[in-house]
Write a structure and sequence with these properties.
The chain has a 6-stranded mixed sheet. Helix 1 runs antiparallel to helix 2. The radius of gyration is 20 Å and the shape is globular. The chain contains 3 helices and 6 strands. The chain has one domain: Nuclear Transport Factor 2, Chain: A (Roll), CATH 3.10.450.50. Strand 3 and strand 4 form a beta hairpin. The chain is α+β, with helices and mostly antiparallel strands.
């Protein structure tokens, strides 16, 4: 009897752990997809893809040339024009941390000439994951 209870307990916690791991993997994939929309849109100037990744309240912040910049999503999107994806453009998620329905990601976009490092804060809503805040820095090679 004790062995049966022990086996059941082990099985219960193993299944719970497996379900939690599957959920974590699913959330990780969903955040990757959201960031992928951003990368694809950034690379081609497709504002519909960038806009799909960014919540309507998103602000983009940077500090450049001694000045703090705070840009709305609408202003940011207005800076893009459709173009072919540049050859040699690489994108990557450097780090990703997810807790419940919030996430933080460090990403890089390497154009060959410049490297843009972005830190995204993301929130999962009923409609899915969205970038709600971005801070960025550009480094010339």
């Amino acid at each position: 009897m004790k062995l049966s209870i022990l086996a059941f307990t082990f099985l219960f916690f193993s299944c719970s752990s497996l379900k939690a791991q599957q959920t974590e993997a699913s959330e990780f994939q969903q955040v990757q997809t959201t960031i992928g929309y951003y990368f694809d849109g950034w690379g081609t100037g497709d504002t519909s893809k960038i806009g799909k990744a960014m919540h309507s309240t998103c602000h983009l912040k940077s500090f450049r040339d001694g000045k703090f910049n705070d840009m709305s999503r609408a202003e940011y999107l207005s800076r893009f024009k459709p173009r072919p994806r540049p050859e040699g453009l690489t994108t990557r998620i450097v780090a990703l941390d997810i807790t419940e329905n919030i996430a933080s990601a460090k990403t890089e976009i390497d154009t060959g000439k410049d490297v843009f490092t972005d830190y995204f804060n993301l929130i999962k809503t009923n409609e899915g994951w969205f970038i709600v805040d971005k801070i960025a820095v550009k480094k010339s090679k």
